[in-house]
Amino acid sequence: MAASAAFGAAALLALVANVRAVPVVSEPTTTFTSETTNLPSPYAIEHYNVTSHGPYDGPPATTTGALSTKVLAPSIAPAPPPPQIVEYPADGELHGDQPMPFTPSGGIGTNGSEPIYKVASDFDYQSLALALYHEWIELDLFHWGLATFSEEEFDAYGINAEDRFLIQHMADQEIGHASVLANMLGPNAPKQCTYNYPVSNVREWVDFNQKLTRWAEAGVYGFLPHLNSGPAAQMLLQSITIEARQQMSFRQMGGQFPMPEWHTPGIPQSWAWTLLAPYVSSCPYNQTRLVWQNFPALHILNQPNPARINGSNVWNETTGGYANTLSTKDIPEDELCVNATDKTLDCPAAIANNKSIPLSYPGRQVFLKWDAPGQLVGPNNSYVTTTNCAEPKFALWLSQLNVTYTPLLNISYEERTAYTIQPNVSTWKNDPAVNGTMFMALTDVDLFVTPYNVSMVNPHVAALAVYQAG
Ligand SMILES: *[C@@H]1O[C@H](CO)[C@@H](O)[C@H](O)[C@H]1NC(C)=O
Ligand SMILES: *[C@@H]1O[C@H](CO)[C@@H](O)[C@H](O)[C@H]1NC(C)=O
Ligand SMILES: *[C@@H]1O[C@H](CO)[C@@H](O)[C@H](O)[C@H]1NC(C)=O
Ligand SMILES: *[C@@H]1O[C@H](CO)[C@@H](O)[C@H](O)[C@H]1NC(C)=O
Ligand SMILES: *[C@@H]1O[C@H](CO)[C@@H](O)[C@H](O)[C@H]1NC(C)=O
Ligand SMILES: *[C@@H]1O[C@H](CO)[C@@H](O)[C@H](O)[C@H]1NC(C)=O
Ligand SMILES: *[C@@H]1O[C@H](CO)[C@@H](O)[C@H](O)[C@H]1NC(C)=O
Ligand SMILES: *[C@@H]1O[C@H](CO)[C@@H](O)[C@H](O)[C@H]1NC(C)=O
Ligand SMILES: *[C@@H]1O[C@H](CO)[C@@H](O)[C@H](O)[C@H]1NC(C)=O
Ligand SMILES: *[C@@H]1O[C@H](CO)[C@@H](O)[C@H](O)[C@H]1NC(C)=O
Ligand SMILES: *[C@@H]1O[C@H](CO)[C@@H](O)[C@H](O)[C@H]1NC(C)=O
Ligand SMILES: *[C@@H]1O[C@H](CO)[C@@H](O)[C@H](O)[C@H]1NC(C)=O
User: Where is the signal peptide (predicted)?
Assistant: First the structure.
């Protein structure tokens, strides 16, 4: 394999390819130790334990705003579908000669060309750089929680020593994910930063983790099939499947049903960056900047709270906009579900909990308040929230496969408040589409988009939030 030595992911694969079976020379045995089976561990990216946490309090940044170059148009015009997909007769027959036995014609990257594990366009670079920011924060966030909260605090939520080892393991997995991405980005890959977490106890931390891993996961699903570099997509796919498992584990540790949804949504990169940036405090000098937009925060005033027995019976129980992560402050003990005596109402850490009172439901009024644009957010407060949409008229619900719009009611553009009503929509067979840890945006038009082109709605987005439906 003649891959460039600068891209360690290719080197890693070359190493794996050199593993050979060891010949049996004596009594049959299943354990071998020899020079041919002892392979060195590949070099992992340089990383350290972040020691500083909290909001940014350094000097104003000298460079602000997203990275940009010549912008050709305010939005991308819709175009007809690609003819080769429309014209392919999906009839189960073979329509081309086979390149080799047992192999159909077609596919991308299947003609024998050597895979190069690197980004191949600005789109690839910016997308993987965004994903790397997520791997870095998770590496710190999971370690930070373990170091910050006591064993007793974890035990009180049913998260025992073995569960804590799982969290430690999940933190360490991020070293591998960060290494893979940084190798494919090259020397200017974004570095580790310092962070600011909106949590003050184990329950809040677990909820922030399950929300952050969801938008990190959904953020990758949104761009993965659009990458120019198939080899880069392959490597990222094999990391993001682990991220998906982490998301599920944190839901389980919070006593939530592990995966209520039938499909995981994908979101645009600017949504993932909008949700992440407020929790990044400062990044090193010369940090590579990102092209993505930061939208204003949407505050869900009655965001469902999974720490409660009746999670929909809430007012202002988040620790802020964007993540809209749960707060346990001021919840009386007998309203917390963790130790509820009725088994249909409790929510200790578990493989699954039936929540007999739904967190959210069709017909629920959801009360909203959104921020004005022009706020400084993100690393060194060096990004600025922007929107083209001064007067939103719809709530966009993005969960599972489809986008659904509901009208905003009782809108006050002065106060930036409104409410909307949760729609009654399903994916298949009455499976509620609005479910799980999902997303809500406010928009000025109900633009028709489907999972592969959700980002076309960005020029119409006024504000953005995580919504906790189920
Ligand atoms: C970070 O801290 C953990 C203990 O919490 C330790 O095991 C690990 O080696 C440290 N990592 C680095 C890079 O210093
Ligand atoms: C294989 O496909 C790639 C990308 O489409 C192309 O650049 C390359 O020239 C092709 N190689 C061969 C041997 O046809
Ligand atoms: C739940 O009950 C256990 C056992 O009584 C107790 O140790 C723990 O502190 C309780 N957890 C909370 C969050 O109150
Ligand atoms: C979410 O899905 C689960 C599992 O199918 C279901 O029990 C629950 O009622 C759904 N939640 C909502 C809010 O529809
Ligand atoms: C961000 O702030 C830190 C701390 O003040 C500083 O060391 C660093 O150089 C700044 N980063 C950038 C990209 O300006
Ligand atoms: C800053 O980054 C640029 C490339 O983005 C590089 O050319 C330059 O050498 C870097 N400066 C320092 C001081 O690291
Ligand atoms: C849960 O709270 C909602 C909203 O306040 C309320 O409509 C519903 O009746 C409550 N459910 C139960 C079982 O108490
Ligand atoms: C919730 O917060 C909003 C916005 O800060 C405020 O207007 C409202 O009065 C609060 N509601 C309650 C019940 O505290
Ligand atoms: C769990 O919830 C499902 C769906 O509502 C219900 O059919 C089942 O009986 C419940 N099981 C238990 C043990 O509560
Ligand atoms: C909507 O606005 C009207 C008039 O201001 C008010 O009477 C009503 O209570 C509001 N509805 C809600 C759900 O806030
Ligand atoms: C949602 O729609 C389904 C199918 O139309 C209907 O059976 C169900 O009663 C509706 N649920 C609510 C809460 O309106
Ligand atoms: C998603 O929405 C499109 C357009 O309304 C519709 O054709 C499709 O059936 C929907 N898919 C699902 C799984 O609900």
Answer: 1-21
